[in-house]
Amino acid sequence: MTTHKLLLLPGDGIGVEIMSEVERIIAILNAKCGGTTFEVEHDLVGGSAIDAHGVAITDAAMAKAAAADAIILGAVGGPKWDDVPYEIRPEAGLLRLRKDFDLFANLRPAICYPALAEASSLKRELVEGLDIMIVRELTSGTYFGEPKEISDIGNGQKRAVDTTVYTTAEIERVIKSACDLARKRSNKVSMAAKWNVMKSGVLWRDVTIATHKDYAPDVELDLILADNCAMQLIRNPKQFDVIATDNLFGDVLSDEAAMMTGSLGMLPSASLGAVDPATGRSKAMYEPVHGSAPDISGQGIANPIATIASLAMALRYSFDMGTQADAIEAAIAQVLDDGLRTADIMQDGATKVGTEDMGKAIAAQVEAKLA
Ligand code: NAD
C-alpha cells in the first residue's frame, strides 16, 4: 500500500469553494485506486491565516507543507486585506512557500477542450485539441537581478535599471525539468530566448544545448527566438509541446498561450523544485492560475475546473499516476461535451451549473472512468 500525503491550502474567497470539489475527487481516488491512498491534511494560507494567526502562513503550516508529498493551493487575497502591512499581506504566504521550497520551475499548460474551442480568440482549427506546456523559470532573471533601481540623473531626468542575471545551474535545472516533462508528453522541447541581442540569452542557448546533449539526447530540441515564439504561438500553436524559457519571457508567453484557451477558471499550474535524490520526487505546489475572485465568492458559482485540473497535474507530475490524471482530464472534457457550463464559460444552448454541480458531474465521470 502506497500512501501519498497531500496538504490542501484552500486560502481565501472562491479558494474554499473550489477546494471542496477537489476533495470530492480525492475521495473517489481513495475508493478506486487500490494500493494507493491519499492522506489529506488542511491548513490556512493568505487572508484566512492572517485573521487566525496574524501571518499569511504559520511555521506549523510550513512544517506540514515540508512533510507533504504535494501541496494544492486554492487562491489568496481579497479586499478585506488590502490595507494590511505589505510584509504580512496574503500573497506573502504564497511567496514563502515558493521561496522556502525553491520552486523554480513554473508549469503552465495551455489545453483547449474541443467543446470550448469557439470561446478562443483564435480560429477553431488552430486551437482545437491544443495541448502545450510552458515551463517558466520562476526564481531568478530580470525580476530579481541587481541592480534594480530608478536613479536621478539631473535635469529632471531619471534612469531605470533592471538586471537579467542567470547562472549555468539555474538554467540547467529548468531545462532538465522541461526534458523530464517532455518525456511524459510528446518528447519535444522548444527553448525560447534572445541570444541574438542578450548575453543571458547566449548562456540560455549554450547551457540548453549542453544539458540536452548530456541529459536528454532522446528528446527533440528546438531553439527559438522568444519574439518568434510569440508569433508562432498565434500562427500555429500546435507545433509546440513543451516551451522552456526564462522568467520574463515565460511570464508573457504563458499568459499568451493560456488565453488562447478560454476562461481563467480553466487554467491549472504547477511549481516544482529540485528532485530529492532520496525520493526521486520534486517538492511541488499545484494551484489554479486565477485569484480568489471576491466578486463571485460565496455564491457557489465559481468554476472548479482549474483546481481539479491542478489535482490531475499533481497525479501526473508528483505521483506518476498518468492513468488517473488522464481520467480526470477526460472527465472534464466529457462534462463540457455534455454541455455543462459554469457562468464564466456559459454559451448559448448549454446548461448553466454552479460549483458543486460541476464538481459532482466531473466526480461521477471520474468514478465511471476508473471503474
Ligand atoms: P481573479 O483571478 O480573482 O478574478 C478575475 C476575474 O475572473 C473575476 O471577474 C473573477 O470572478 C473571474 N474568475 C476568476 N476565477 C474564476 C473561477 N474559478 N470561476 C469563475 N470566474 C472566475 O483576479 P483579481 O480579481 O485580479 O484578484 C482578486 C484577488 O485575488 C486579489 O486579492 C488578488 O491579489 C488575488 N490573486 C491571487 C492569486 C493567487 O492566489 N495565486 C492570483 C491572482 C490574484
Characterize the structure shown.
By secondary structure, the chain is an alpha/beta fold. It has helices spanning 14-32, 47-53, 59-67, 91-100, 124-127, 168-183, 199-215, 226-235, 247-259, 305-319, 322-337, 355-369; strands spanning 2-11, 36-42, 70-75, 105-111, 131-137, 145-152, 158-163, 188-193, 220-225, 242-245, 268-276, 281-288, 340-341, 351-352. The protein is built from twelve helices and 14 strands. The strands form three sheets. A ten-stranded mixed β-sheet has the order 2-1-3-12-11-4-5-10-8-9, sandwiched between helices. Strand 8, helix 7 (199-215) and strand 9 form a beta-alpha-beta unit. The mean pLDDT is 94. Residues 14, 75-78, 94, 264-265, 287, 290-296, 302-303, 306, 344 line the site of nicotinamide-adenine-dinucleotide.
Short description:
This protein has about 375 residues and is of the alpha/beta class. It is built from twelve helices and 14 strands.
